[in-house]
Design brief:
Asp_de-COase-like_dom_sf; Dimethylsulfoxide Reductase, domain 2; binds ligand MGD; Rossmann fold; iron-sulfur; about 775 residues; 27 helices; alpha/beta; 29 strands; about 15% strand; binds molybdenum atom; binds iron/sulfur cluster
Length: about 775
């Protein structure tokens, strides 16, 4: 086998992939003759990571052999959360679980059990399948409304494909924009190499981020240090400069976007065939063709579309309607946001806005990377839509060095299967926002159903690799919800705070101990991620658990007897063109690209066949099809009464390069790098309140109060602070304590009062709060 290289001393090198983050870098695991993992190195054969690794991945031996890891299934014997457990076998665990699930289903219906996970760790498809299987409701009690879904869905609604995230062509770009994204830390191994190379050949760099400690901020040509959550104003002002200074790509905008599409002015709806002609086609969207002087369908080839048409149109019902174009309607919204006006709202000097917009728009090819800084906001739909528009009108969509479509995510459907139509009405929606675009149950609302039994009782929650007491907003409320359950099952590496509340805690194998397919949907590259060592103790993989559990309850959905059979089916469904056995043998396989991807040639898979600035599907879903400069729903501007008490805008959850969310604070050599939770705020606040560096302080919000160590800085606006998330675990070897009951958990502070209207995202990155000096004895 190419993927296992024997060593002269009886040991071996195993080619596999690190699974400590989404990057899944290719690695070489050295295993000695006794089967023990000795070391892990990057594998230069991986075309993405090119042999690089980060500190988390390089800690594999420590994580694998960490004595604090879970070893065998544990069942609760005391009160919930009391910490009393009995060790049981896997057979006992699965028998007991099956019986509990069947009993609860009998009593309350299949929809009473929610399935979930945390961020993607290779099993999104199986967690989704568990939720959908056998007539259940896809509650998907996972942080999808917070992470990736808004970005992905907004792109699909506008373009029928997904051009940000891994779609950034850093290597060929003349200008790189990190907009609320710190990928050199969060997907370090690809991005650092690519960005470094591009910088060496002179690519410009723009960092749009409130925090000057972003690792690229000081290297950037433009650092745009904006107020958290004010991104729509900045994006509007960029568009203002680009549209008014005529810096956009005329040909692409006219021919490949729906900028020329006609709208009934005021009503903001497309002028369709049925409106202008009796018996006309309501699906047909019209444009004005300058060549023929006619209104024609937007799909008509060879036309000369008028992007600025304005006039009165005779409708089929005899009335007349004022008509404008998408371009003009967008421009009307954009015109209000001159750099000077936007500057008042986003706190960025107008000249910085102007110069950075020009740099982006005039680069021959430019790529924008967006992520959590934008997503975790109640106005995320607006910013994401505006950024997508910028990419398109500057001609950077599907262009070398710009933003390219990722072919993969639309292959998820066959793997998860779909919930039956009849179950869709059982999805649980959040009544604090319309959630017009978010298709599945909303996590916050499902937690509420656990507490209240409304709209119906949710009595069970089965999850792998997730820690909702760390990921969800308002930790205290989540804890209260979980305490109401009849069944809580948690599969993890460690006894996390969520595990502590469970009935059944299941031990998961580390990536060095398990066979997996990387990645989930077999995108461009697929890897046979094979185990380097035999699983220790009684650990099993998450894939094994979902398959075994599924097979017991719903064999028609889970017919596979072994993981290998499941992998083969997965490879077949995703057209990878390889079997598991072959893949394991060669480790890496290149998946043929889908031929339909040349959108510039064949048009975009959207209702208008074009990249949609005006998202037609959003109109149908009840959302605003155009972006607006919406303020976060709780902020210094929108809720001044709250801001009077809590004047700081807190960014919760900015990442550390060495930790993965709440994991790995127990690994001594990682913990030494950042030993304690630090809240970062401006030096002037420390001076005013008499707070010293590293002094423990309170951070208070309308939702709760936590404690962290003070780290004053000059790298932030005095009205902003940074509050990292994920702190619960102690590190006995270094004599460092844990932080129980959410006492240093950023989500103890975050609001469950306001949500984004389209994706139901909470405003984690603009949490109103204040720093308070501790009194003696506190
Ligand atoms: N305030 C605030 N909240 C946030 C965020 C933020 O920025 N700010 N970020 C949000 C985002 S983007 C996300 S994705 C979520 C993340 O939320 P989660 O993914 O739930 O993150 P963790 O809290 O680290 O919990 C994951 C658990 O899985 C365990 N684990 C790790 N690998 C494996 C594995 O392979 N198998 C099993 N069974 N267990 C494993 C870890 O030990 C850990 O206890 O948090 C969200 N919450
Ligand atoms: N080491 C490590 N890597 C990770 C993770 C981890 O926990 N640790 N988590 C993984 C997961 S699940 C995710 S989703 C990704 C997230 O990856 P990223 O989004 O790249 O990383 P973050 O640090 O969460 O946030 C990016 C930046 O957003 C900025 N920001 C905050 N608020 C705003 C705002 O309002 N506007 C703008 N423009 N910027 C703002 C922050 O200062 C930060 O620099 O990382 C993944 N990779
Ligand atoms: S970036 Fe680090 S943690 Fe992520 S896969 Fe690569 S080595 Fe592992
Ligand atoms: Mo995430």
């Amino acid at each position: 086998m190419d993927s296992v290289i024997p060593l002269p001393d009886g040991g071996k090198i195993v080619k596999t992939n690190c699974f400590e983050c989404h990057a899944k870098c290719g690695v070489l695991c050295e295993v000695d003759k006794d089967g023990e993992l000795v070391s892990v190195k990057g594998n230069p054969e991986d075309p993405r990571s090119e042999g690089r690794m980060c500190g988390k991945g390089l800690s594999a031996t420590r994580i694998l052999y960490d004595p604090d890891r879970l070893r065998w299934p544990l069942r609760r014997v005391g009160e919930r959360g009391e910490g009393k457990w009995e060790r049981i076998t896997w057979d006992e665990a699965l028998d007991w679980l099956q019986e509990r699930v069947e009993a609860l289903t009998e009593e309350y219906g299949a929809e009473t059990i929610a399935y979930g996970q945390g961020t993607g760790r290779g099993t999104n498809q199986w967690t989704g399948r568990a939720g959908n299987a056998g007539g259940r409701v896809h509650h998907s009690l996972s942080p999808g409304n917070i992470c990736l879904v808004p970005m992905m869905v907004q792109a699909f609604l506008q373009y029928g494909m997904f051009p940000t995230f891994d779609g950034c062509d850093f290597d060929n770009a003349d200008c790189i924009v990190f907009w609320g994204a710190n990928s050199v830390w969060t997907e370090p191994t690809y991005t650092s190499g690519q960005v470094g190379r591009s910088r060496d050949r002179g690519a410009k760099l723009i960092v749009i981020d409130p925090f000057f400690e972003h690792p690229l901020a000081a290297k950037a040509d433009h650092f745009v240090g904006l107020r958290p959550g004010s991104d729509p104003y900045l994006a509007m002002a960029w568009l203002n400069v680009i549209m008014n200074e005529d810096l956009y790509d005329h040909e692409f905008t006219q021919k490949f976007t729906n900028a020329p599409m006609l709208l009934i002015e005021g009503a903001n709806v497309p002028l369709n065939g049925a409106l202008v002609e009796e018996g006309g086609n309501p699906q047909s969207m019209l444009v004005f063709d300058k060549a023929s002087g006619q209104f024609v369908d937007i799909h008509t080839p060879g036309i000369d579309e008028d992007m600025n048409y304005h006039g009165l149109v005779q409708l089929a019902d005899g009335s007349q309607a004022p008509v404008t174009t998408v371009w003009s309607a967008l421009k009307q919204r954009v015109d209000e946001w001159t750099p000077e006006h936007a500057s008042e709202m986003c706190w960025v000097p107008a000249e910085v806005i102007r110069q950075s917009a020009r740099t982006y728009a005039t680069a021959p090819a430019a790529t924008i990377n967006v992520f959590q800084g934008i997503e975790e906001q109640t106005n995320c739909k607006d910013t994401l839509q505006l950024v997508n528009i910028l990419i398109a009108i500057c001609g950077n969509l599907e262009k070398k060095g710009g933003n390219l479509s990722m072919p993969f995510w639309n292959q998820m459907g066959p793997l998860t299967g779909a919930e039956p139509e009849t179950q869709k009405e059982l999805r649980i929606v959040n009544d604090k926002a319309s959630g017009s675009v978010y298709g599945i149950s909303n996590p916050t609302a499902v937690f509420e159903a656990m507490r209240t039994g409304k709209p119906y009782p949710v009595r069970g929650y089965i999850m792998v690799q997730g820690n909702p007491l760390s990921w969800s907003e308002n930790t205290a409320l989540v804890k209260e919800s979980l305490l109401c359950l009849d069944l809580l099952v948690c599969m993890d590496y460690y006894m996390s705070p969520t595990c502590e509340l469970a009935d059944l805690v299941l031990p998961s194998t580390h990536w060095t101990e398990r066979d997996y397919l990387a990645d989930e949907v077999c995108s461009e590259w697929v890897f046979g991620q094979q185990k380097a060592v035999e699983p220790l103790y009684e650990r099993k993989s998450d894939v094994w658990f979902w398959r075994e559990f599924g097979h017991r309850l719903n064999p028609e959905w889970w017919p596979w007897e072994t993981d290998e059979e499941l992998f083969d089916w997965q490879l077949e469904q995703t057209h990878a063109g390889v079997t598991w056995e072959e893949l394991k043998g060669k480790w890496i396989h290149h998946v043929p690209q889908m031929p339909s991807r040349d959108y510039r040639e064949h048009g975009f898979p959207t209702p208008s066949g074009r990249a949609e600035l005006y998202a037609v599907v959003e109109l149908i879903m009840g959302a605003d099809p155009l972006p607006a400069a919406n303020e976060p729903k709780e902020s210094v501007f929108s809720t001044p009464e709250i801001a009077a008490e809590y004047p700081l805008t807190g960014i919760t959850g900015r990442r550390y390069p060495i930790y993965y969310h709440s994991a790995y604070r127990g690994i001594p050599h990682l913990r030494e790098i950042v030993p304690e939770p630090q809240v970062i705020f401006h030096r002037s606040i420390a001076e005013k309140l008499g707070i010293d560096y590293a002094e423990w302080v309170w951070i208070e919000s309308p939702t709760g109060r936590i404690t962290m160590k003070a780290r004053p800085t000059d790298g932030l606006d005095p009205r902003v602070c940074v509050i990292p998330h994920g702190w619960w675990q102690g590190c006995a070897k270094l004599g460092l304590p844990g932080y129980p009951d959410g006492m240093s958990n950023a989500n103890t502070l975050t609001s469950d009062r306001v949500y984004n209207d389209e994706f139901l995202t909470p405003g984690l990155r603009s949490t109103l709060c204040r720093i308070v000096k501790k009194k003696g004895g506190e």
